[in-house]
Amino acid sequence: MRSYLFRRLIGLIVVIFLVLTIAFVLVRLAPGDPASLMLGPDATPEEVIALRTRLGLDQPIAVQYLTFLGNVLQGDLGQSLFFNQSVTSVLAKRAEPTIFLALFSLLVALVIATPIGIWAAYRRGSILDQTSITSAMLAASVPSFLTGLVFQRYLATDLGWFPASGYGDAGASFAERMRHLILPAITLGITNSALILRFTRASMLDILGEDYVRTARAKGMTERRVVLRHALKNAGIPIITVVGLTFALLVSGAVVTERVFNLPGMGNLVVNAVLRRDYPVIQGTLIVVAALYVLVNLATDLLYLVVDKRVKY
Amino acid sequence: MTFRATCLATVFAFCAAGPLAAQGKIDVAIIGDPDTFDPMVSTKDVVSIVTQHFMETLYTFDDNWQVVPLLASDMPTISEDGTTYTIPLREGVSFHDGSTMDSGDVVASLNRWKEVASRGMAIADQINGIEATGPAEITITLSEPYAPLTTLLAFSNSAAVIYPEEILADEIDEPIGTGPYKIKARQPDQYTQLVPFDDYSQPGAAAGERAQIPDEIRFIPVPDTNTRIEGLLSGQFDYADSLSTEAFERIEASDVAEPVLLEPFGWSLFAVNHKKGLMTDLNIRRAVQAALPYDDMLFAAFGDEKFFQTDGALYPEGWSWHNEAGTELYNQNDPEKAAEYLEEAGYDGQPLRILTSRQYEFHYQMAEVARMALEMAGFTVQVDVVDWATLAQNRDNPDLWDIYITHSPFLPEPTLTSSLFATAREGWANPEKEEILDRFTRETDPEARKEIYAELQQKVYEDVGLIKIGNFNVVQGKSRALSGVTPSPWPVFWNARKEQ
Q1: In which domain, by residue range, is B435 found?
Q2: Do the chains contact at A36 and B190, CB–CB below 8 Å?
Q3: Fewer beta carbons within 10 Å, N or C terminal of chain A?
Q4: With contacts defined as CB-CB under 8 Å, which chain A residues touch B35?
């Protein structure tokens, strides 16, 4: 077990090193200059050159890379070119909306997908099963920005039930901030429920055909107990895998939803950073997201130990 | 409490917790976050919109775009030869840090302006000196007359704002100004919160009262147009900048908000590369000018005649600079004539590169229509569609483009249009144009300047210095409860009032 964890941590370091190198190279290969963007359309070339020097962008790429690498080793992801703050503090401020949005939307997805998935498998071939599969396909096919726009227009603007965008006023309470997440969470939750629903249904179908389920029924257990205690528990591993991956995806991939609802999260941050060519922020976000992916995967694997005693590392 | 009851209570709490309704708070949705609060170093409109509330200049513009005193107490006294400007300053004006503005602050700020601001740098060579000639008076000495000086001192981007001398540095992170509002808080990409400055002293009547009516003004960066529209219509924003023309009717039909049409807002243009490539040949430039179907391009870009005007004059009617010189060369839409010019130029099919981006969708739509028309006239056309950051970089490299598409609001003084100058990235150098421009900047008599400007416009058309496509309107939106905001490319909110 210890050596397994050690191997996984080494893997994490390798992944992060690769991501930061690729991110560093890619953002600099892309054309576009942060200095000319920051100074506006009528800036003179002299002003642009002066700003490039001040930002350290006039240094050779190799020097910039080594400096960056050295700083990362000391836990310093650099200084945002745009915010005049460290990347770590920018990311820390942006983490709250993104993480809560990911948690809420995962909750929405689970609440929708798990019962329907179980029921659809239990009543395989029924109208409910067919409807659930069709709805899942539909939910997975409609892009979240469209769902978001429809919700925003009808539920926020027309009916006024929810805020249309943003994350609350300056000094908004926690409840007020979370209220701003309801619509985005439903939007993302619906889109992501499709995958969880299909996985739940498929694993439950496998398990419900197993001999021990038949035995449990033969012993006279109630259907509820057979399905929820015996079948669902054993169908858990694939479901946990997909839930873990969905969570990682939600943290890194809520870009469009954050944009539509103007949430100050990491997704919006990285889009703005790309548009502004804020290199350190792009790199920092990619590193954090890569680390998060690996850690969520690791946590998922470790969760198998809890769910299934037969699993050993 | 059961689990179910707890859940219901939580959901109810979220839904019931409405936004706090502060008295007199104005929420303004702007298109992006200002990169800086130092308006000297930026030429972006979004920086001007926010900073004009807390930074002030010696002069400003009245509703008719006439220069009027702001921190100056009067218009300058100009010497006979037009080279010495003596500017009296208002006394007892406080900065946000409590200090009082004097001539030392003004001299130091203007010296910084000519070193770091692109508009200041452009005339730095002509400024012999800026001196304090009294505690409340400064004198600017020029090497030769320069009539647009007061306009430059009044303009809100690349602005000659006045800071306390003590805080001046290459970079100013926390600007201290004299404006009616001051910064209370800022969360990058979330909001900039302004509150009234209690010790604000009102400028003279010409500049108009800055009544500090809202208790708080919040500028909220909302980059997505649709989100700005929904926020406006749901009552979340009191004012929203730069909305899509497609939303005009929906906003008009709303009970909550109404559209604000800036008519006309500005003009779109094809900037021409005079430094390198195909467009350095006058016949090629004239071929492009003759081939373009200006009205079709405008229609494709703006969709409804309510939002554009096919107008060749560089300033529209109603502006003192308006004239019709040279406009017979506008909107010719004549592919045969263009083909003749191409033949005269000995055009060999080398691609004409149009650099554009979809940051502004109307740029791209104009490029697509232009491509078809130019190809019909015999051009080979290459439209390079890139993101805005790439465009901002590539347009500074004359090897990479022949035409790039841009737009501008109508600026109060023609010399603020950088494309007219040989030093701009387009590099339009023409001896006759330089002579006209020289006369134009030296002449101080307004009527004589208008006549010289007509000559300049004639030259723009004859030599195809740039290609104006047309005028366009911009849609902003405001809450129906809001009053006291004059529509402008740079709207101000110090007199804004909201009915409760």
Answers
A1: 265-474
A2: no
A3: N
A4: 37-38, 82, 276
Nearest to B230 among A40, A47, A153 (CB): A153
Q: By C-alpha distance, which of B151, B104, B148 is closest to B126?
A: B148
Whether residues B13 and B148 fall in one domain: yes
Q: What is the mean pLDDT of residues A273-291?
A: 87
Tell me if A176 and B19 make a contact (CB, 8 A cut-off).
yes
User: Could you report the per-residue pLDDT of A152-166, keeping only the tens digit for each?
Assistant: 999 999 999 999 999
- Any domain includes B421: yes
Q: Do B118 and A156 touch (CB under 8 A)?
A: no
Residues B489 and B46: beta-carbon distance below 8 Å: no
Considering the domain boundaries, does residue B214 fall inside one?
no
> How confident is the model at residue B71, as a pLDDT?
97
Q: In CATH, what number is assigned to the domain containing residue B462?
A: 3.10.105.10
Note the pTM of the prediction, 2 decimals.
Answer: 0.85
Residues 20-59 of B with CB under 8 A from A: 20, 33, 35-36, 41-44, 47
Q: Cβ of B393 and A38 within 8 Å?
A: no
Whether A168 contacts chain B with CB within 8 A: yes
* Domain-ending residue, one of B167, B186, B213: B167
B70-96: per-residue pLDDT in tens? 999 999 999 999 999 999 999 999 999
DSSP-H helix ranges across A30-86: 34-39, 45-55, 61-73
User: HSE-up of B105 (CA within 13 Å, CB side)?
Assistant: 25
Kindly report the CATH number assigned to the domain that includes residue B157: 3.90.76.10
Handedness of CA A300, A303, A308, A310 (dihedral sign): positive
